[in-house]
Design goal:
Keywords: Membrane, Transmembrane, Transmembrane helix
Order of helices and strands: HHHHHHHHHHHH
Helix content: over 70%
Mean pLDDT: 88
Number of helices: 12
Pfam families: SpoIIM
InterPro entries: SpoIIM-like
Shape: elongated
Low-confidence stretches: 69-74, 317-325
Number of strands: 0
Structural class: mainly alpha
Distance between the termini: 34 Å
Strand content: under 5%
Organism: Pararcticibacter amylolyticus
Radius of gyration: 24 Å
Protein name: Stage II sporulation protein M
Length: 325
């Protein structure tokens, strides 16, 4: 991107930073992150320009405001979870929506396929799993698979596997998003046929109350990981005003941050699957409460909070806001 265009695109934002009076640490932290991102870009492409020197001074001012008297009001880690990641979710709303649509559509494909062909579920899930589940159903414990291993061992294995799968889903986006789309299709069909199998056995509601205790977070994270892969792939396909290399670096970094942000979600889902899901006899209200809390958290953190934060930032950058000193 030419320097003149870079300045034109960001001049109004920088002017707002200069005139800021707010001492809100949340707002200062977000502005500091935005300025340092612009500074990093300027250092790469215009290392000796006045723009770089200007941004360096602006970043220093925000840094001093944040860390005055040597007290770190916001750690970098805190800023990541509270500001960076939610704002990435906001900027990648289209990728999140596309990922969700692809996944849901092929979930339905899995349901329709399993309903029309009784051998389809066996093909997707494997003979061994179907035989084991049928045996458990006959024993009166259809979800006995969740009780078959040590809790801690299950927790570690599932957490590691899910994190690895999400990273693979992200990296597959390098193939122009095709790899990520393929994995979303595959996982969607698997989930749809898997869920239909229990409904066909008259265990649909029970399966929701048991499996979705951990599945709500786990499946949501799979969809979000798909958005990370699409972010990487789309950065190659649609560089916009950036050079393709800069666009790819930006997309890869944002996608990687999304995957890092999903790690606690996968760990929590693995904990639920390893330690909680096995208690299939728990009261219905307990299962429903976990499901509602899990879904509410995902909707709030990925959709609602990023929008609220963005509106707050836009209002905070109004032209008449003054200097924090």
């Amino acid at each position: 991107m030419r320097e003149a265009l870079f300045i034109k695109q960001n001049a109004e934002k920088w002017k707002g930073f200069e005139n800021m009076e707010s001492k809100d640490p949340d707002l200062l932290a977000e502005c500091f992150i935005s300025v340092t991102d612009d500074l990093a870009y300027a250092k790469t492409f215009y290392p000796k320009s006045k723009t770089t020197a200007y941004l360096n001074g602006l970043a220093s001012r925000f840094h001093q405001s944040l860390y005055r008297n040597k007290k770190e009001r916001l750690s970098r880690l805190s800023a990541f979870w509270r500001y960076e990641l939610p704002l990435i979710f906001k900027s990648r709303e289209k990728e999140l929506l596309y990922s969700l649509i692809i996944f849901v559509v092929f979930c339905l494909v899995g349901v329709v396929s399993a309903r029309s062909d009784s051998s389809f579920v066996r093909l997707i899930m494997g003979d061994e799993y179907i035989k084991m589940t049928n045996d458990n159903i006959e024993k009166g414990d259809p979800f006995g698979v969740y009780k078959s291993h040590n809790e801690f061992a299950m927790f570690i294995l599932i957490a590691f596997n899910n994190i690895a799968v999400s990273f693979y889903e992200f990296v597959s986006g390098i193939f122009l998003s095709v790899g990520t789309i393929f994995l979303l299709i595959k996982n969607g069909i698997m989930l749809g046929s898997f869920q239909y199998y229990f409904f066909s056995k008259g265990l649909g509601w029970n399966s929701v109350l048991v499996i979705w205790i951990h599945g709500t977070l786990e499946i949501s994270a799979v969809v979000i990981a798909g958005a990370a892969g699409l972010t990487l792939g789309n950065s190659i396909l649609f560089p916009k005003t950036y050079t393709r290399m800069v666009s790819v670096k930006k997309g890869a970094l944002e996608g990687l941050k999304i995957i890092i942000g999903l790690i606690p979600v996968f760990i929590c889902a693995a904990f639920l699957e390893g330690f909680i899901t096995r208690h299939t006899e728990m009261p219905v209200w307990t299962s429903v409460s976990i499901l509602i809390l899990s879904l509410s958290f995902i909707i709030w953190y990925v959709i609602i909070y990023p929008s609220v934060l963005t509106r707050k930032l836009e209002k905070g950058l109004a032209p008449k806001i003054s200097d924090p000193s």
